[in-house]
Every structure is written in structure tokens, then in C-alpha cells.
Amino acid sequence: MKACPKCGASNLDTAKFCNECGLKLETRALIKTVKSYPPEKFAETLRQRAKTLDRKRRADIMFVLDCTGSMQGEIDGIKETIMEFADTIEKDGVRVRVGLIEFRDRLINEEHQVLKFNGEVFTNNPILFRQKVAKIKAYGGGDAPESSLDAVMLALAQPFDLESNKAIVLVTDAPPHIPDKETQNIEEVVRAIQTIGIEQFYLVIATQNSESQVYLKLLSGVKGMAFDLGKGDNFRSRAENFKRTLMSLGKTISTATS
Question: Where are the domains of the chain?
């Protein structure tokens, strides 16, 4: 076990981030190397790293997350994996910001919520993102379908950085309301995606559910793909499956970001 130098919590030797406060944990070998590194050389390395970061490709990633009663596993998966997800993308040379919209069913008066991070919709601080996501609870939704199309339209209206690659990740285990409270059909969303200039669109859905396959139309004209959502009612098992999906998604986004 290794103790977090910030909060003192115990973590597995293989842990990359503290389970309590989210601090990135250095390996013992790296800590030993840093301690023996000449201070002036270490400072120069930091300056060079800063210059490299300034030249990075950029991506704004908006998660559109179904937070109805059956989705606790996916909420846990995002909370537990977001730091490794962001770290994987940055290691591939992409400066990343993330945001999240939680949705349920507007037709039974369950309105969307846009998470805010110190007043901003996007954040480059995965620890802050994790803390906010940890407060989300899976509830409501009634019977399927859900208000996913209205949620995507809300995501399109968010303040993406004009110099960043714009990506949306829709995560849901339910088909969409057609029509939704405001959005009339899937074609309306496709036109909006193309008008706004979203470069990447990813689906994490029940790909084998024929009613959910309508979501595949959202991939028209953009880089993207569909990932299969885990099955069953075991939230822990679904969380682990979704964590693996997120890591694959991170590599896909970094590769597709120009």
C-alpha cells in the first residue's frame, strides 16, 4: 500500500490516483528519481514541459449522461475513471477539458442539469470534475424512453472553445423520446450537430437493442463510433465495464483529435 502525500489515505501500490482526494500518485521509482534530480535541470524540464503543453492539440469533451435509476454503475464509472481518462488523452498530446449534462425524462418534469465547475461549464481539472460527479445520484426516469435528444441539443448549445476539437459522448441504456419535449426527431439533431461543427460524436448505448439503434444516425458526417453498454442490474459490474469503455474511448478521442 502507498499513502497519499496530500490526504494520507491508503491506496494500492498499483493505484495511479488517490481514491479519496484524486491526487495523482507518483511511483516510488519516480519519486526517487526526482529527489536525485539536479534542481536546475528539473526546473528546465518543467519549462520545456510547459512549452510542449502550449503546443498541444485541444479537445472539449461534453458527456451527456443518462442519470435515471438504472445508471448508477455508469455514474460510478465516470467518477472513478475520469482522472485516468483525462491523463491518457493528455499523454497523447491533447489538452482536454470536460463537462457533463445529466438527463432523465423531461416528459415527466425531470429537467436536465448542466454541471458547473467554479461557474464554468468545462474544466481541465479532473479532480474537481470527479467531486461534482460524485454528488450525482441515479433516480427517476420512469419507463423507457428518456429525454436524450433534448439533452444532446442542450449540449450543442454549450460554450465550446472555438480552437478546440468539439466532442460529445452520449451515455444511455434507453431509447430516445421521439418527439421529445422540444426536439421533434433525430434528423433535427443531426442537422444541429453539423451546423454547430461537432467534430466527434460517441455513443455508449445498448447496441443490441433495436429501439436504441436509432442513435446511430447521430454519427452521420462526424468522426465517431458506438460502444456497447454493459448489461445487467449489477452496478459494480457495469461500472467496471464502463471504466474499460472510457479508457478505450480516451484513446479513440486522442487519435481523432487534429
Answer: 2-51, 56-256
Where are the alpha helices (H) located in 92-234, listed in sequence order? 126-133, 148-156, 186-196
Q: Locate the DSSP E strands across 118-222.
A: 165-171, 200-205
Q: What is the residue-wise DSSP string for 53-118?
A: HHT-EEEEEEEEEE-SGGGHHHHHHHHHHHHHHHHHHHHTTEEEEEEEEEE--GGGT---EE--BT
Handedness of CA 216, 208, 165, 80 (dihedral sign): positive
Write the pLDDT tens digit of every residue in 26-42. Answer: 544 444 444 455 656 65
- Greater model confidence, 152 or 237: 152
- Whole-prediction pTM: 0.80
How confident is the model over 58-86, as a mean pLDDT? 93
User: What is the chain's alpha carbon radius of gyration, rounded to the nearest angstrom?
Assistant: 19
Encode pLDDT of 228-257 as tens digits. Answer: 987 766 777 888 888 999 999 999 999 999
- pLDDT value for 257: 93
Rounded to 5°, the CA angle 130-132-137 comes to 105
Q: What 8-state DSSP symbol labels residue 176?
A: B
CA dist 84 and 48 (Å) reads 23
| Distant-in-sequence, close-in-space partners of 46: CB < 8 Å, separation ≥ 6 | none
Q: Residues near 169 by Cβ (< 8 Å), separated by ≥ 6?
A: 61, 62, 63, 64, 202, 203, 204, 249
Please count the residues of the chain: 258
Flag whether pLDDT at 22 surpasses 70: no
Is 56-256 a CATH 3.30.420.40 domain? no
The cell for 81 is 475513471
